[in-house]
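Final report, Chapter 2: Outcomes

The project's central promise was a pipeline that accepts a single protein chain and returns its three-dimensional structure in a standardized token representation, suitable for archiving and comparison. That pipeline is now operational. To close this chapter, we reproduce one record exactly as it appears in the project archive, with the input sequence first and the structure output second.
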Amino acid sequence: MKYQSLTLYRFIQFISRCYCYLTYECHLIGSANLPSDRPFVLASNHRDNRDTWVLGALPLRPMWYLAKHQLWTKEFLWAGYWFFNFMGTLRVERGNVTQELYDQCKTILQWQRQPVALYPEGRRRTGQMIESIKPGAVRIALDSNVPLIPMAIHGTEKVLRSKKFRTPLVVVIGRPVKLDEDATEEENVERLRLAMQEVLDQAIDASQAVKLARSH
């Protein structure tokens, strides 16, 4: 069983919030859609490395994160085996998701009663479309019998291109995806993809509204 240092988590969460406050004009929509009394799987789009800073800064209870295995390479040895482990991070090797990883997620969700966050797109993407996603989020949610929550982050990738102070950042949390145990995995994955696209569209529209308001 893996354990998470809540002291370290809260400290990094504080740093993340300071960074987001200084860098972005943050808008959170739909936080009421997150279950307050049970664990869940949070499925977010992924456009920039800063997305994880945003996830960590959100006013949510401590979560576990799935992260690329490169963070545990020799170049990050001191961080990978200490920082990432105690922060509550699970290693994912692209193209080789093991049963052990699914078992770890199930233990965290069912026994430790903590949420798990991941990027179903599998890697950073560009554009305004959720074109394809991996089935991992659906499998974990169904296997652990927990809600699957779609989320969209819009604006993290724009900070380096913007000359304005505190660029708009919108986070939209959607309603739980209605998965069907009798449906095929492909059908449930498509349900999640459509739900992620819906919240991303909402985030884009909200971001445009914020920009319009700032221009007046």
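Archive annotation: The chain has a mean pLDDT of 85.
This record, like all others produced under the grant, will remain available to the consortium after the project formally closes.
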